[in-house]
């Protein structure tokens, strides 16, 4: 059974860079797309982007200028960096396998942007 | 504003049937498969329907999906109190080259 676990700081200061890592267990990260999705409190899902294990990416056009994704197949991990964060970036961040349906999800991690 | 349009809420009595609509355009639903996700309170979303009408292993046949043109529908029969959740449709948008979601529909089982 594939499992995903997000990790990273729960508090980020405004204007700084949010960095999260998703560790995949129970299966290989290779030959799949892997996505990041976020959800502000009480609001809907927003797709941030995805990365293939070759390193190819697709990003949400509304976030593209601030997003960078990377993958480390040796560690079965993929990562998200979101730069120049503001309070509007406060949300629960999920990682998921993009099959292309999002069939396995992490439990989510709350990231708060505040000074 | 979400690219896909869903009703904010629906409700029905236990045992009854409910449908949730998802409206899009030719650049998304019209030319791509639709997925549906169930998000129980305080948990991560779970894949409910993929490729318009297929159920992953373990999803009961009370849940069904359909697509016509630029709209998709999730159906739930034999409603149970445990079905109370937020439901999201999702698909790929070929113009945006991005995955898009509906705004979500809150199901209340009265």
Major pleated sheet of chain A:
7 strands, mixed
SS-derived structural category of chain B: mainly beta
Element pattern of chain A in H and E: EEEEEEEEEEE
Number of extended strands of chain A: 11
Distance between the termini of chain B: 29 Å
Query: What is the end-to-end distance of chain A?
Result: 39 Å
Can you count the helices of chain A?
A: 0
Low-confidence stretches of chain A: none
Biggest sheet statistics of chain B: 6 strands, mixed
Q: How much β-strand is present in the residues of chain A?
A: over 45%
Helical content of chain B, roughly? Answer: under 10%
Structural class of chain A: mainly beta
- Label the overall shape of chain A: globular
H-E order of chain B: EEEEEEEEE
Give structural notes.
- Chain A is built from no helices and eleven strands.
- In chain A, strands 2, 4, 5, 6, 9, 10 and 11 form a seven-stranded mixed β-sheet that branches. In chain A, strands 1-3-8-7 form a four-stranded antiparallel β-sheet, with no helix packed on it.
- The model of chain A has no long low-confidence stretch (mean pLDDT 96).
- Chain A has 115 residues and is mainly beta.
- Chain B is mostly beta strands.
- In chain B, 0% of the residues lie in helices and 45% in strands.
- Chain B contains no helices and nine strands.
- Chain B has strands spanning 9-12, 18-23, 34-39, 46-49, 63-68, 71-76, 85-93, 98-101, 105-109.
- In chain B, strands 1, 3, 4, 7, 8 and 9 form a six-stranded mixed β-sheet that branches.
- Chain B starts with 8 loop residues before the first strand and ends with a strand.
- The interface between A and B is medium-sized, with 23 and 24 residues.
């Amino acid at each position: 059974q594939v499992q995903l676990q997000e990790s990273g700081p729960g508090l980020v200061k405004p204007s700084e860079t949010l960095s999260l890592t998703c560790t995949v267990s129970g299966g290989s990260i290779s030959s799949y797309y892997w996505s990041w999705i976020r959800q502000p409190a009480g609001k809907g899902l927003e797709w941030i982007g995805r990365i293939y294990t070759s390193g190819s990416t697709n990003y949400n056009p509304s976030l593209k200028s601030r997003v960078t994704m990377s993958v480390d197949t040796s560690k079965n991990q993929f990562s998200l960096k979101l730069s120049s964060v503001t309070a509007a970036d406060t949300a629960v961040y999920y990682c998921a396998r993009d099959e292309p349906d999002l069939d396995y999800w992490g439990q989510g991690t709350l990231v708060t942007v505040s000074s | 504003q979400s690219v896909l349009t869903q009703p904010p809420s629906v409700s029905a009595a236990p045992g009854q049937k409910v449908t949730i609509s998802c409206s899009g355009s030719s650049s998304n639903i019209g030319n791509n498969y639709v997925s549906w996700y169930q998000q129980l309170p305080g948990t991560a979303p779970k894949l409910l329907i993929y490729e318009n009408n297929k159920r992953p292993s373990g999803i009961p046949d009370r849940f069904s999906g359909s697509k016509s043109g630029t709209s998709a529908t999730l159906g739930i029969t034999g409603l149970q109190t445990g079905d109370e959740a937020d439901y999201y449709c999702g698909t790929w948008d070929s113009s945006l080259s991005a995955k898009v979601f509906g705004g979500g529909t809150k199901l209340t089982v009265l």
